[in-house]
Amino acid sequence: MRLTVAGIAKRFNVPEPTVRTWIWNATEEKTEDGKVIRTPFPDPVSERQPREWDQDEIDAWVENNRPRVWAAFAGTGPVLVQPLPEGNPQDLLDIDDFGEVWGNATRGEPLKHDTMVAYHNRGQIPFADRQPGDEGKPRVFAYHWYRRTVYDFILERPGPGRFGPR
Q: What's the mean pLDDT in 62-89?
């Protein structure tokens, strides 16, 4: 079966610009010892517009190069780059802790403070469990989330990174 960019996006429940980014940016990368750490996006089987790709080749590429997208597509358990750190579910995490846990789990590196603030301002992360002046104990001077809130968000958030069945 052949898939266009629109077909690939629909198959994996990702936006078309994401698929185009995969196509443009997926050049082969190797470590110093020659181990391949990133493979290029498969070549199209048809160059006429709209270009088409072999579904089996795309499936294999996504499974190897975008494991979180593949996990969402296949409905398998979470694929985390790094496991979620242990801790009490009631621990309070500030915005930088949230970005560190989320980024490490999903990308292998912490998210930047400015990125997390932007996500918070746009409502793309859960509203903070604690905020300055909320009269809770202990007193907080910045937004804080319970560890369980952060972990639930990471494991159950909607979108291409979700892991449950469709």
A: 82
3-state secondary structure of 54: strand
Q: What is residue 69's predicted lDDT score, i.e. its pLDDT? A: 84
| Contact criterion met (CB below 8 Å) for 8 and 23 | no
List alpha helices for the chain, DSSP H: 5-12, 16-25, 55-65, 67-74, 95-106, 113-121, 147-156
- Other beta carbons within 10 Å of 68: 19
pLDDT the model gives residue 77 = 64
- Residue 30 CA to residue 21 CA, distance in Å, equals 20
Q: What is the Rg, in whole angstroms, of the alpha carbon atoms belonging to the chain?
A: 19
Contact, 76 vs 62, CB < 8 A? Answer: no
pLDDT for the residue numbered 166: 33
DSSP state of 122: T
Checking if the pLDDT of 22 tops 50, the result is yes
Closest CA to 124 of 97, 158, 164: 158
